[in-house]
Amino acid sequence: MSTHPSRREFCSLAAVALSLGPLSARAQAPRFPAKAITVRVSVPAGGPADSAIRAAQPLLQRALGQPVLIENQPGANGTIATRNVLSAAPDGHTLLGGPGTDFLTAPMLVASARYNPLDFKLIGVTGVSDFVLAASAARGFREWRVQ
Description:
147 residues; D-Maltodextrin-Binding Protein, domain 2; mainly alpha; 3-stranded parallel β-sheet; extended
């Protein structure tokens, strides 16, 4: 005799679990956010990425009803702030801000990064920036655009 439930039993158990899950989650879920939100920014203060996050700060505070604190933790191609966010309590009160390029490429370029970008969840974009590649006009290069 098999100890595994039949397909019908499994479906019945799954239906019960799914119907009770939201009720128990709502009953036990703490109010969020329960305290100040800290955004650890992986670049120095004053640059474009920092400015975009600081511009979003009052909107976040109003929407969340809690203070939003910004801590700049630059260095090591963004891995200092990233590792600090990864090691923070997984309660949603510590967020990471900074250029996506640093965040995504650092594990490939910095041996001490020790994180996987897939360990994080993107929750918003605060700005988009263009990058320019330029050379002396005397060199005779043609204009080239990435579409």
